[in-house]
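Suppose you are handed only two things: the residues of a chain and a line of SMILES describing coenzyme A. What would the bound structure be? This form records exactly that question and the answer produced for it, so the two can be stored side by side and reused later without any lookup.

QUESTION INPUTS
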Amino acid sequence: MGEKASGVLIRPASAEDTDSIYEIGTLCFPDAWRRKTVAHDMEGDHSEYFVADLNGEVVGYGCFWFVVDEGQLVNIGVRPECRKRGYAEAILKRGLEECKARNMKTIFLEVRVSNSSALALYKKYNFRSLGVRKGVYDLPREDGYIMSREI
Ligand SMILES: CC(C)(COP(=O)(O)OP(=O)(O)OC[C@H]1O[C@@H](n2cnc3c(N)ncnc32)[C@H](O)[C@@H]1OP(=O)(O)O)[C@@H](O)C(=O)NCCC(=O)NCCS
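ANSWER OUTPUT
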C-alpha cells in the first residue's frame, strides 16, 4: 500500500530495500550508517522506513522512530540526481501520517545548522527550533538544531 506523489510511490520498506537505503545514505551523509546498522534498525518494532519507489528503483527514503508518544525523523535522503521533485516532501508527509496512526503527540528531529535545503523542508511543515546542540555533528564538526512539531 502506498501513496502516489510526483509520479513516485511512497511505500513501507522491506528487507529487499536494505541495499538501496544503505547506498542512498552513503550518497547523502558523510557519517552514513553502516549496512548492518541499517539492516538491524529496519528490523526494530520502534522504527519504520518509507521509500520513494520510482518504477521499481528506490530513489529516496525516510527513517522514523516511534517511542511512547514521541516520533522522531531520524534520516531522510534522496538520490542527488532525483532531488527537487517533491520526493522528500512526500516521504515526510507519509511519516507524519504514520505518527498520527501510532498516536504520537510530537515529532522531533535534528538537523545541521548549515543544511538549508532540509531546514526549508522542515519549516514548510511547521517544525520549530527548540534550540541548538553544540558540536553534535562530525565530518565536519557542526552544531545542530533540535526541531519539533505537534502531530
Ligand atoms: C533535504 C533533501 C532530503 C530534500 O529532498 P528533495 O526531494 O530534493 O526535497 P523536495 O523536492 O521534496 O522539496 C521539498 C521542500 O524542501 C525544501 N527544499 C528542498 N531542496 C531545497 C533546496 N535545494 N533549496 C532550498 N529549499 C529546498 C523546499 O522547501 C521544498 O519545497 P518547495 O519545492 O515548495 O520549495 C535532499 O536535499 C537530501 O537528500 N539532502 C541530503 C540528505 C539530508 O541532508 N537530509 C536531511 C537531514 S536528515
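WHAT STANDS OUT: The helical segments are 18-28, 35-43, 87-101, 116-124. The chain has a mean pLDDT of 95.
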